[in-house]
Amino acid sequence: MTGIKDVAREVEMSTATVSRALRGLPGVTEETRAIVLEAALRLGYAPSPTAVRLASGQTRTVAVVVPYVTRWFFSSVVHGAEEVLSGRDYDLLLYNLAGSTAARHRVFDTDLLTKRVDAVLVLSLRPTTDELARLDRLARPVTFVGADVPGWATVRIDDRAAARSAIQHLIDLGHQRVAYVGGATEGVLDFSAPADRLSGFRDTLLDAGLTPDPTLERDGSFTIAGGTAAGRSLLDRPDRPTAVFAASDEMAFGVLRAARDLGLRVPEDLSVVGVDDHELADFFDLTTVAQPVQEQGRVAAQQVLAALGAKASGENWQPRQVILETRLVGRGTTGPPPGRRA
Which of 54-63, 71-80, 128-137, 158-167 shows the lowest per-residue confidence on average (mean pLDDT)? Predict the structure, then answer.
């Protein structure tokens, strides 16, 4: 492999001069720079990325803290961010918490991120006061995806509004006994979405003059298996609901499986609505509230790049709180309740 010493030997210059010429630093004439660049190209010399980063004081790496890297939502957000960052020659350093409090502590409460990255993306977690203080001390751009963190750069949807549109759709169809399948509102990773979607569900029922029934609320763990178990619990009862709102499409898929196992027809016997517009939602003909998942990753990446650019040029950069729109996508899993059909 050709090294900088080979280039210096070829042009009969010192390695310091060759290095300055290749890096575009002052103190080298344009004629000398042209000679060095021509020799480097002819010899096939490529500078070490690590050396370039050390010389510039940047790692050109962005950390992405992911609660569960194997789940569709998080992997889709990461994909969107990677598209933008790789286009600007930044690498991603992935920290997969895998639902572990120890892993979360290791990332936020130690010096793990120090000197490793230029910026940080945090997905769906509500940071504690101590975590925010430590992130602030990093003095690096930070953007949160899927969480409302006042004073910090954020990209998210309005989860309450997403739930409201789903429940209002069911109410407009005539449903009065609506069940909810979501996730734990408190726990290891403390997500924002479960609590906000549950609040939107309850508030919309109350606004319509309907009293939320706690016995019709289940934890589906935001997985297909969890949705299946929750669906069976709700539907295998004499006073089963006529509709189910699942706070994610994957849980909705599970509810559909449970309905099929119990011999219920959708939407004749049961209506089901999800959230996400998962890549398989159309396959299941699922009515859902679509959110721009990959776009959240792209916008978050653009936020940190803008902050890094402002930092490099000495400009003042103000964090933005971006809320992307959702929309109800009506498909074949919703209809009027039994007894209300034409």
Answer: 54-63
DSSP symbol at 156: E
Q: Where are the beta strands (DSSP E) in 253-335?
A: 271-276, 287-290, 321-324, 327-329
**Confidence (pTM):** 0.81
- Point out which residues pair with 125 in neighbouring strands: 191
Identity of residue 296 = Q
Angle at 174 between CA 171 and CA 233, to 5 degrees: 75
Task: Decide if domain 61-157+293-325 falls under CATH 3.40.50.2300.
Answer: yes
Q: What ranges do the domains of the chain cover?
A: 4-47, 61-157+293-325, 159-291
CATH of segment(s) 4-47: 1.10.260.40
CATH fold of 159-291: Rossmann fold (3.40.50)
The residue to which tokens 């070490």 are assigned = 48
Q: What is the pLDDT of residues 223-255, one digit of tens each?
A: 999 999 999 999 999 999 999 999 999 999 999
Dump pLDDT digits (tens) for 143-157: 999 999 999 999 999
**124 close to 67: Cβ distance less than 8 angstroms:** yes
Nearest-angstrom CA–CA distance, 43 and 33 = 15
CA distance 161 to 324: 11
